[in-house]
Structures are given as C-alpha cells and as structure tokens.
Amino acid sequence: MALALFSRLRSRSFSTLLSLDSKSPLSAKDKTRAALSLLKSESNPEKIVEICRAAALTPETHLDRIAFSIAISKLSKSNNFSYIQAFLDDLRRSRSDLQTERFASHAIVLYGQANMLDHAVRTFQEFHNDLPGSGSVKALNALLFACVLAKNYGEVKRIFIEFPRRYNISPNLETYNTVIKAFCESGSSSSVYSVLAEMDRKGLEPNKTSFGHLLAGFYSEDKLEDVGKVLNLMKEKYGISQGVSIYNIRIKSLCKLKRSSEARALFYGMVNKGIKPNSNTYSNLIHGFCSQGELEEAKRLFRGMVNSEYVPDSDCYFTLAHYLCRDGDYEAALKIVQQSIGKGWVPNVTTMKSLVSGLASSGKVDEAKEIVGQMKEKFKKNVSLWDDIEAGLSQ
C-alpha cells in the first residue's frame, strides 16, 4: 500500500516546486535552502514528500539532514506514517546514490525519530542481508541511536546483547557511548559501571562523551556521591581532565536541579583553574537563574557574557525575553528583543504577544506598535494575526 501511494506521488511534477523563477539551475545547496523554507510552512503530507524529492536530498550535508529531519518530524506528528515508509523505502530502492551504508544508517535514525522502530530494525536487517562477512557497526550504532530517540531503552539493551553476535559486528566506542546514554536517560546510571568493565575487558577506553553521559545521569538521579566517584575515576584511572565540556554538563545538570547557586560556584571554580568558559556555559547559567526567578542575576550574567566578548546564542535572548515578560519587566524585555531581532532571531509568538500587550498596558503604545510593524514585515503570512493584535492596542 505504501509503495502504491508513493508511485502516485512520483507521477506528479516536482520541477516547479523549487524553481524560484530562476533562469539558471539551482545548486544543490540552494535547492535545500528553498526546501527548508517550504517545509517550515507546509502541512500537506503529499507536498512535504514532493518538496523533499524535488530537492534531491542526501545525508551527505548538514542542511540536507536538517531538511530530512523536519520532513519526518512533520509527517510523524500528523500521524502520516505510511508516507514516511513510502518515501524512505522509495529513496533506498530508486536512487543508486543512496544505496549506501550512510543512507541506510540515516534512514534507520529517521525511523527512530518517527518512533517506527520496527521499520528501523527491518531496514537494518535488509541492509545486512546484502553484506558479505562482518556486519556494519555504523548501521548498528544508528539502530541503537534510533532506539534512544524513540526512548525505547529496553530495545537498546536487547539489540546491544543480541545483534553484535548475530550479525558478526564488533562494537566500537560509539556503540558503548550510545548504550551508556540509554542507561543514563532511563534512570539506570549505576548499570554503566558494568559497561565500563566490559569496555576494559575489550581494550576500549571511555572518553569525555562516555563520562559526560554518566555524570548527567547521576545528576538527574540526584546521586551526587556518584558524581564525585565518576570524577575521580576519570582522573585517576583514565587520566581524563574535566575541561569546559564536562563543566558545562555539570553546570547544566545543577541548574536543572534548581541548584543554580551551586552551578555558579562551580563556574567560578572553573575560571579560577584557568579553564575558559564558552557561550554554552553562560547560556546554561542564564537559563538556570531565569527558571528560579532570579532575573537580576541572569541579567548580570548576560552583561558579563557580552563584556567578555562571548556571543550569546538565540536561546539566550529567547530565554531572557520570555522570563522578563513573565516577570512584567517589559522595558528590559524590549531591549533584549530588539537586540535579538537585530541579529535575525525572533522569539516565539507567545513571547512577542506578551511583550506587545505588556508595553501597551504600561503606556508604551508606540513601542508596542513598532514591534507589531516589525512582525508584520517579517512574517507576511501572519499579517492578519498582528492586525488583530494592533487593533486591540490602546490609543
């Protein structure tokens, strides 16, 4: 049924979808960019598939992978699973450039994203039926990661135990790191000690990614004594120093536990050791203090970040704007939003509506109208929404 559905789609004309009235053929990158723009506003499943086919997407580039992910996400959220199967199966069978380990692995991950694990396993098995000798560890890792995306941690354990022997695959560091991630996300971080022991027996050393997953797991389970044990294990047995990536995981984890003051102390301890923070460090702290209602500290950290010549990402601006509006500090929120828009980053509609309403209610109608004008200019498809909002502003 799925393939019959897709054969109807293939008979339609795709060439006009991404032409953009161009007199010369679009480059692959330009096609992908056009596809991304179309996909963001498209909800019709047939059109979503048409757009992807017209762009001739591959898993070779970052932009193409984003486009695939958006398409699969939209189709799965609207329960159009038959389109996902038809689309991915047709690509694997009809395009010689996609009859590769790389695309099979990517298709497996996309099935995991859509929570279609039976199709992920089928794709893995079909790919391995064509392989002589040893199986593909890359495809195995993709299948394990697909299970993590689908949050089916029991399936991670089953596949990890059964498939390497069945398909003659030697797990590598990425395999073990994915299994460690699954244990930690499922609240079974203590089980990782046995995984580390198995790695030792096989001569594989864990890396910062391994310990990052484990630290995040113990923090999420509020097992702070184990955090200390892991840090000692890293240093004493494996000679792995913390570095900014590990500190960021610890700071983010503490903030999630509403221990932002402890996260800040850890931040200063990191700086005193000569380890330079990055924008993620500040972003985690800012989000932590905002979520605990300590907006003055969040604003102070934001200023410190900018003064230290770190570049805030869009999430920093969006987080501050959201919480400042929620706290009724519309003047400060306006400054943050204006800076964010200046960089091409616009907070979500809920935050922007809150800001406009708050400015108007505090007597700053002109500023509110200016924001509305910017929204109407930037998002022409939502002009009627902003017209209604503007009409409700006090004169």
From TrEMBL:
The keyword Repeat applies. It holds the Pfam family PPR. The keyword Repeat applies. This is Pentatricopeptide repeat-containing protein. The lineage of its organism: Eukaryota, Viridiplantae, Streptophyta, Embryophyta, Tracheophyta. SUPFAM superfamilies: TPR-like (SSF48452). Belongs to the PPR family. P subfamily. Keywords: Repeat. It comes from Erythroxylum novogranatense. PPR repeats lie at residues 172-206, 243-277, 278-312, 313-347, 348-378. It comes from the Eukaryota.
